[in-house]
Amino acid sequence: MLRALASLFFYARFFHRFSRVGLRRRQRRWQAYSTRLDGQTWLVTGASGGIGAAIAIEAHARGARVLAAARNPDKLAELVLAAGGSERMQPLQVDFSSVSDTRRLVQALTASDERIDVLVNNVGLLLDRFERTLEGHETSFVTNLLSHFVLTEGLHADGRFTDGAAVINMSSGGMYGAPLRLSGMAASSARQHDGMAAYAMHKRAQVELTWAWNARWLGQPRVYVMHPGWVDTPGVRTALPWFRASLRRFLRSADEAADTALWLGSTRPPIAADGGIWLDRERDPAHAFAMTRKTTADAAQLHAFLIGQVESSSSARFEGAVP
Predict the structure, then answer these.
(1) Could you tell me which of 104, 54, 284 has the C-alpha nearest to residue 176?
(2) Among 82, 142, 173, 292, which residue has the least CB neighbours within 10 Å?
(3) What is the pLDDT at residue 3?
(4) What is the model's pLDDT at position 323?
(5) Which one, of 264, 280, 281, 283, lies nearest residue 59 by Cα?
(6) What CATH number is given for 32-311 in this structure?
(7) Per-residue confidence (pLDDT) for residue 5, from 0 to 100
(8) One-character DSSP codes across 6-65
(9) What pLDDT digit, counting tens, does each position of 274-310 carry?
(10) DSSP 231
(11) Distance CA 134, CA 101 (A)
(12) In DSSP terms, which residues pair with 145 in a beta bridge?
């Protein structure tokens, strides 16, 4: 009952920003920009459907070579067909719920001497039920956060980013309901797991990790964090059917949700000292409630925590992270 009331308050609080209503209002302030991406290489995770597929298709349409990374080979094949069978749409089969498979992707990209202009860390899911991977981690934690960390750190350590490159982390408006807490982020049992709370914590952690990377890497690459608003995606239909049923006519399309990622990857605005999170080409505050500022961890501790989680998947030291 309390969660239902809290959800109702949350949706009422953010309706005019996160729905299609908010998008239409902000679109009035948009200015034209150069959309061509010829000669660039974009790596998009979770590219086989939803927002990831929309980003991949549009980046390809604008002239980019797109490395489309996802788990399902059939959906990746459909994506290539949607791009007209173009050689500039290259499917990469990888399981982002696996640390080892994500590391394999980094190694493969390094071995083939790939150079990345834009990385979009888009893959994510909300799991109400508890699932443990073969490496011993809760599945949504690896998919939503740990794989992003492994991929981005690994590409950076191997010098895979071009000069002036950008990393775009796809967060969620749900992060406004969670502070940064290391406990509860990676449950070890069904008793500890709360899917919706964990998802919000993962998305809050993406914001903090963005700031940590910008502090460490000093803009090479520039790292942005955004959220797409409320979007009618296959994931929402599966995980939040009641939410979709109530607000369907106000939800954004995947193409509309992809716009800010494409804009950030094209224009690469300066990194703001006070952080923030991007929505509809504008930078919003990272906190909407005082309670989310009350945390027991900071970005540096999150970074160290994630290194420990990676190393717990293997006996080898994680070489992607700089001490």
Answers:
(1) 284
(2) 82
(3) 60
(4) 36
(5) 264
(6) 3.40.50.720
(7) 55
(8) HHHHHHHHHHHHHSHHHHHHHHTT--------TT-EEEEESTTSHHHHHHHHHHHHTT-E
(9) 889 999 999 999 999 999 998 878 888 999 999 999 9
(10) B
(11) 12
(12) none
Quick one: pLDDT at residue 160? 98
Say if residues 322 and 157 touch (Cβ distance below 8 Å). Answer: yes
302 to 14, 146, 151, 158: CA distances (angstroms)? 27, 11, 16, 22
Q: Which of 87, 94, 122 is nearest to 108 (CA)?
A: 94
Q: Where are the domains of the chain?
A: 32-311
Nearest by Cα to 127 from 144, 152, 110: 144
Secondary structure class of 194 (helix, strand, coil): coil
Q: What's the CA gap between 256 and 270, in Å, rounded?
A: 23
pLDDT of residue 2: 45
Q: Are 250 and 19 in contact (CB under 8 A)?
A: yes
Burial of 92-128, coded b for 16+ CB within 10 Å and e otherwise, reads: bebbbbbbebbbebbeebeeeebebbbbbbbbbbbbe
Q: Which residue, among 125, 113, 109, has the nearest Cα to 67 in the 3D structure?
A: 109
Alpha-carbon gap, residue 46 to 49, rounded angstroms: 7
Q: Residue written as tokens 């150079």?
A: 115
pLDDT at 187: 85
Query: What are the CA-CA distances from residue 225 to residues 170, 242, 262, 282 (Å)?
Result: 6, 27, 13, 11
pTM: 0.93
Parts of the chain with a pLDDT under 50: 2, 322-323
CB atoms under 10 Å from CB of 154, counted, come to 22
